[in-house]
From TrEMBL:
PANTHER family: CELL DIVISION PROTEIN FTSY HOMOLOG, CHLOROPLASTIC, SIGNAL RECOGNITION PARTICLE RECEPTOR SUBUNIT ALPHA. Its main location: membrane. Pfam families: SRP54 (PF00448). SMART domains: AAA, SRP54. The keyword Coiled coil applies. Belongs to the GTP-binding SRP family. InterPro entries: AAA+_ATPase (IPR003593), P-loop_NTPase (IPR027417), SRP54_GTPase_dom (IPR000897), SRP54_N_sf (IPR042101). Keywords: Coiled coil, GTP-binding, Membrane, Nucleotide-binding, Receptor, Signal. Residues 1-20 form the signal peptide. This is SRP54-type proteins GTP-binding domain-containing protein. Residues 382-395 form the SRP54-type proteins GTP-binding domain.
Amino acid sequence: MLLSMLPFLLLLLCLSPSLPFLLPPPPSPALLAPPLSANIFKFLSDKTSEGLTQLTTIASAVASGNATAGLASVKEYVDQENEILRARVQNIFPRPELDLVEELRKTRPASPEAVEAACGTLKTLLLRSDVGTAASDLVAARMSKSLLPLLEDGPLKYSDLLAAAKVHLLATLAPPPRPPPAADCVPVYLLMGANGMGKTTTIGKLAHRLRKTAADLGNPDFKVLMCAADTYRAGAVAQLQVWAERAGADIVGPADVLLGLGREATAEACAAVKPGTVVYKALDRAEEGGYDVLLVDTSGRLSTNTGLTKELAKIYDIIEKRLGGPPLETTLVLDASQGSSAVTSSATWGKSLPITSLALTKLDGSSAGGSCVGVAASCGIPVAFVGVGEGVDDLREFDAGVFVDSLLDVREAERAEVNARVEVLRTALLAEREKEEEEAREAASNDL
């Protein structure tokens, strides 16, 4: 393929002296301010020149019979440029809500009214970060209750405000108690979500992460099986197959069902296979093949799509009956920039089956991802993983402390003091809860 492209590449190189003039002229100063128009034209010209340099790299590599090295060099260049461009875009479009943080840094509340005002400002910060009204109200109210007693020691510091916000955000994000997983059976991850959320990509990254973690712990033979139960979307099985190859996992899809029945696996026949049938086949393969984990991909759907949601509930029931208990994880994949609608969709899905965790994708952009706090507060669903890029290694376990620090813009120089105050407030909070529980027990005893 590269050899067939060589004449085209060489033609572009020959045209390189005149190619910049094929670009449109700079916009008129009447339309754009002169500095902006000049910068735009310079950017386009620079990128044209840089692009020609990379084409030269590829052409030279092909000519010397080392196309792989040439492509690797260009890929490295593109990756670096993408990182630079992403950083520039984030600088151009900063999070405006962080202006509120700078405002709070200058305050030292010394009265109940000032504390309430500071909590109101932090509530606005949370609202602008997509945390949602209910969760923001809850955190702000709990902050105020924790901060007011501290006024006895004098005006509050900024670290007190941040610590109060952090301790209650962490409490909101803490995972609720979970029943133990089904014993003596293959652990199953069931992933669900709307189209475009990054569900299939997350499965591929998760498979890679599980295998890498197992290898680091001394089990290089850890076996992952993927189940392509998205039989509705054209190309979904092929997309998952690509990720299976990247992650070193095996895959079961509609074609395996048909071939097992002695039927021809045509595209039309594969599309007619029921998702639940594919899942049942995958469970058979996982048990017979001695796999360590099964990851189930499902068709993308809106939470309001009743038919497809019922199909998802059937898949859950099949897994639960075969395992004798629920899947290890039933994970809802959400886009970090989805905003407050994440709470609505999570609540709707939660009516059909018990969601145990969230995977938050596309957290590498300018989104604060605060919607996961709203989901945790309203639905009791914690975040398990976050996607921070497009690479196979770009899936991380969710670190609530790091996330909250980012949400509140806690600086490195502030972190130690804020965390020390967090421990003080957490101890006081636990003591208060123990007191409330003791009072409740006494009241119940008196009623008897």
